[in-house]
Design a protein that fits this description.
The chain has 238 residues and is α+β, with helices and mostly antiparallel strands. The chain has 6 helices and 10 strands, in the order ββββαββαβαβααββα. The chain has 2 domains: 137 residues, Nucleoside Triphosphate Pyrophosphohydrolase; 77 residues, Arc Repressor Mutant, subunit A. The N and C termini lie far apart (41 Å).
Length: 238
Amino acid sequence: MDFYKNEPSVLLAVDCVIFGFDGESLNILLFKRAIEPEINKWSLPGGFVQADESPETAAARVLKKLTGLADIYIEESQVFGAPDRETYRRVVSITYYALIDIHKYEHIITHEYEAKWFPLSDYPPLIFDHQHMIEVAKRKLRSKAALYPVLFELLPEKFTLPQIALLYEKTYDIVLDRRNFNRKLLHSGLLIKLQEKDKTSSKRGAYYFKLDKDVYKEKIMSFLRYLPSWNIGSEKDQ
């Protein structure tokens, strides 16, 4: 028996804000939309939640299909459900943001989808309310990264202290006191120093580090809030 036959029909979708760091800028992955409406326009990757799926499963499916990556750091961002957010049909979208190593993605990119990385500070006009989705996801990421070391998910397996500092600066649009930042980071217990150096920027070079994953799991709930110029309460979701 259909108990809800007189209720309005609403489609449920998921949209994913995929962040990646290329060593110089924080980027987002955008796709050319392959279906109507708004076909061939830039869009966040997404899809509809199927009858046998939870929203979380649908988001993971979308990420796997479009990037080839599984076990990605993914977190719910916000529900977007304004009645007029799409013209042709009532669609409620649950957005998620994901953090991936951009270099891993480059090795498995498929030509089946027209996809491109854009700097978070400079991307083309998007369909529907996708720009707002990105803005909200960025605020969520900033708040989370001020409490937990989730930005390490964006880094390759080995990295330098200048790379970490630049990632935080790009995420928060700030200039760090590098010496103080490095000192607190080294005392966090999260890093394992390697004997290898990156000498691409100078002859002296910078030591590579890798994340101590065991410590990462233990300390994620008590990680240092070492960004004194960042105040979580300074930005509120609009």
